[in-house]
Amino acid sequence: DIQLTQSPSFLSASVGDRVTITCRASQGISSYLAWYQQKPGKAPKLLIYAASTLQSGVPSRFSGSGSGTEFTLTISSLQPEDFATYYCQQLNGYPVTFGGGTRVEIK
Amino acid sequence: QVQLQESGPGLVKPSETLSLTCTVSGGSVSSSSYYWGWIRQPPGKGLEWIGNIYFGVSTSYNPSLESRVTISVDTSKDQFSLKLSSVTAADTAIYYCAREVYGDYAAFDYWGQGILVTVSS
Question: What phi and psi, each to the nearest 5 degrees, are found at residue A67?
């Protein structure tokens, strides 16, 4: 299985901060990486696919980059509605796997 | 607008079979552009991919669950189903169904709201 390691697992930030979350794959996955946001009691919501393509309707403050084994999700200016847990996911091969999640909380 | 909705019992006894159905509206489970999959999330924990079905016939399963999982589809109703046999307390989780885009832009773009299934006697 391809392992995805997210860091940090938790971060505390203020509204307006620039936030970066990293996802490292145990082997190369090209650009078959997606990012999701999950709020308590809700299903995950797709933010980014193909490592850097913004899903329709997602604010432009979200961006993704990377290929191969290292990827990042950046929120350029954190908004109150962005406090949530973020997961990366690889779809390069089966089984599909997820990172362990990064919980973003208000400082 | 595509919508997915999970349904099934919220309580299953140990050693029995968990059975869930996902009803798709606004889309077709027969489409060659999508996989239809199941993901679960134990309370307070991360996401685990269970498996998917493509074009109504081709299935892929997580090796950690493969011996106990069956995913099938009913194209006449635009539904797909999950069966997980011999459940234990470790199978207690929120179960989500989702649509997975096929190809270079793969991702799970639509999700159901999730259904909590508790395994307990």
Answer: -165, 160
